[in-house]
Specification:
single chain, alpha+beta, 20 helices, 17 strands, 12% strand, binds protoporphyrin IX containing FE, heme
């Protein structure tokens, strides 16, 4: 990897072999071994017991609404609009309607899932000791939570400890980034403690986060506690144990950092629901327009060089698509030009740097990225360019902000964050993951997807519609869910316990004190072998059919089960249905054009780096 620092930008180029370098490793390894030695000989245990105001559980309105079917494109013809597009003029919908209708791009058929089926999330093995517990599980669809009942599970003290102040967090940080690596860091401790719930320090720790101590929840039974806003507080926890300066977000605490109990949370989330719902008819045509051009360029590149990078062009296409679809604005025709992806990458680095590895020599990287926040002033002018673009492009959506009592300034900075961080950030991890998972699965799966997609499009009159996707593309839907299961793009979630409670894993209940920080590493919950067969494998048709759909409650990429919907009272991703729709559209676009394709895969700080090595054009 090479990192260049021109005057006001940071460019990062990846190579296939990111080497940690032997000497820096040894340099760091010895002090670390010393710390480990110190730690294992001096057991030191600290414990938080902060008190928080508690709030009652909020009502959970029914958000499931079947999509109307107005959006479509003709894959090989100019885009056109059906009469139903014109009839359902979504601009007439009020924000209140949006808040109770959610976005409804492609809701999961929740009717198939009964509460007794859902209760399979609960414990499989229990002991006979009776005790009073609070169980957080997925067992109730609309009230996913608290049963204060007599139940027979062994109650355990949460195992693990935090080590000496400063030393413990540094030890855990080095282990997480360099000595063990993220996945093994967690797996090794599961083995060590014989438990999927235990104490540890989460990076970054000193000097970025004041208190890195967390209780990790690493199985599908305990993880959903993090979704229950009656049990956990989500204030300022979006990035974990530290929060980046609000100087990076125009001086505002944007929606993602707000707890639902805070007064601005509901209007801001409604505002984003409104944005997505009001532009829903643009999604399919603009996606096709932008991504068909991306694939044409990849074909040219492949013909010239024998291989084509998917990541860079995908970044540009994703931003262009979002801008065209959600604001009717082509960025190339504005002062922003084609600069957005690199401005966003740099701005995101200033927020997430303490959680990333870029492949620099470890001692240098740990000092530069993980020990201090990069000063926001260095990215101010880039951020201002993005904010200016949204100010000029937002147009009528700002009227809705006013109706909701949100100032234009706050609305604009929330748009920057929702589009550039939440959406662009998420999709530019998800799309390469999707191409990687499907690419690796091979030609047989490709053939089946091509068959399914082309036949569904033929049956809907040669156009891609939401209905065709929802009703006639079960395998396409399944590969998207399976990708989101196997590699959730946002892998960590946090929540601070509001009450003393007992959190239940598959095997035991664990006492948690009010004020303690709960943390979940999602890939371990969504690859829980107690829930999924061949949990580590990409099984393309895992979610096909009635039995397959029952497993969707364990797909939790959106900070909530796939069978539930975002509301103003929860912290589930506001863009949940939008994300699932566009991911399906990428698969549709791929297999309308190609019978099969091949790839080469590498790593990048956020997600995967994918190169296309062959594209076999559609023959049927
Ligand atoms: C692949 C793309 C995306 C992924 C993986 C993703 C993931 C997530 C996750 C995991 C959270 C919860 C974080 C937490 O509180 O711990 C979240 C929250 C949120 N997401 Fe997304 N997201 C994506 C796209 C979007 C889109 C398209 C929007 C568009 C508006 C969006 C808006 C939000 C907002 C506003 C929140 C905070 C919700 C709240 O405060 O109640 N996200 N997202």
């Amino acid at each position: 990897m090479h990192v260049l620092f021109p005057a006001n930008q940071i460019y990062i180029f990846y190579t296939w072999n990111i080497s940690n370098g032997a000497s820096p490793y040894l340099f760091l390894r010895r002090p670390c071994e010393f710390l480990l030695f110190l730690h294992s000989h001096l057991h030191f245990h600290t414990h938080t017991s902060l008190k928080f105001n508690t709030s009652l559980p909020h009502a959970y309105p029914d958000f499931s609404r079947r999509p109307t079917d107005p959006c479509f494109f003709k894959p090989s013809h100019p885009l056109s609009t059906t009469p139903s597009d014109q009839i359902s003029n979504q601009h007439t919908m009020s924000a209140t309607t949006m808040a109770t209708a959610s976005i409804s791009f492609s809701p999961v058929p929740t009717a198939l899932i009964t509460s007794s089926q859902l209760s399979t999330a609960s414990l499989k093995s229990r002991s006979n000791r009776n005790c009073r517990i609070i169980t957080a599980s997925l067992s109730e669809k609309s009230q996913p939570i608290v049963t204060k009942s007599e139940s027979s599970v062994p109650i355990r003290k949460v195992p693990g400890d935090y080590g000496l102040p400063l030393i413990g967090p540094l030890r855990d940080r080095l282990a997480y980034f360099y000595f063990e690596g993220r996945d093994d860091f967690f797996k090794n401790r599961v083995r060590k403690y014989g438990s999927t719930v235990f104490r540890l320090n989460m990076p970054p720790g000193p000097f970025v986060a004041k208190d890195p101590r967390v209780i990790a929840l690493l199985d599908a039974a305990s993880f959903p506690v993090l979704f229950d806003t009656s049990l956990v507080e989500k204030r300022d926890l979006f990035t974990g144990t530290y929060m980046p300066s609000t100087d990076l977000t125009g001086g505002f605490r944007v929606c993602s950092y707000l707890d639902p109990s805070e007064p601005h949370h509901a209007p801001l989330k409604k505002f984003l629901f409104f944005l997505l719902a009001s532009r829903r008819q643009e999604i399919i045509p603009e996606f096709h327009r932008t991504f068909s051009s991306l694939f044409e360029n990849l074909e040219d590149e492949l013909a010239k060089k024998g291989k084509a990078d998917f990541g860079g062009p995908n970044d540009q296409a994703t931003f262009d698509f979002l801008s065209r679809a959600l604001f009717g604005q082509d960025p190339a025709e504005t002062k922003l030009g084609r600069d957005a992806p690199k401005l966003i990458r740099k701005w995101v680095l200033f927020q997430l740097g303490p959680l990333l590895t870029l492949g620099l020599p470890p001692y240098l990287e740990d000092l530069l990225l993980h020990s201090f926040m990069l000063p926001p002033a260095l990215v101010k002018s880039d951020y201002n360019r993005l904010a200016e673009f949204f100010k000029e492009s937002a147009g009528p959506v700002l009227d809705e902000a006013s109706r909701l009592g949100i100032s234009h300034d706050e609305a604009i900075h929330n748009l920057v964050f929702a589009i550039c961080f939440n959406t662009f950030g998420g999709l530019t991890i998800l799309f390469p993951n999707l191409v990687k998972c499907i690419g690796r699965a091979g030609a047989r799966l490709h053939g089946k997807l091509a068959q399914e997609i082309r036949s569904a499009v033929r049956d809907s009159g040669g156009v891609v519609t939401m209905r065709a996707i929802e009703e006639s593309m079960p395998l396409t839907k399944s590969v998207v869910y399976e990708t989101l299961r196997i590699e959730p793009p946002v892998s960590v979630q946090y929540g601070r316990a509001k009450h003393d409670m007992v959190v239940q894993s598959h095997d035991a209940g664990y006492q948690v004190k009010a004020g303690e920080m709960l943390f979940g590493y999602q890939p371990m919950a969504t690859k829980d072998p107690r829930v999924f067969d061949r949990a580590e494998e990409f099984v393309a048709d895992r979610f096909v059919g009635e039995e397959g759909e029952k497993l969707l409650k364990y797909v939790m990429w959106s900070n909530g089960p796939e069978t539930e919907s975002p509301t103003v009272d929860n912290k589930q991703c506001a863009g949940k249905d939008f994300v699932v729709l566009v991911a399906r559209l990428l698969v549709v676009e791929l297999f309308m054009r190609y019978d099969s394709f091949e790839i080469e895969v590498g790593t990048s700080p956020l997600g995967s780096s994918v190169k296309i090595t062959s594209l076999k054009k559609a023959t049927f």
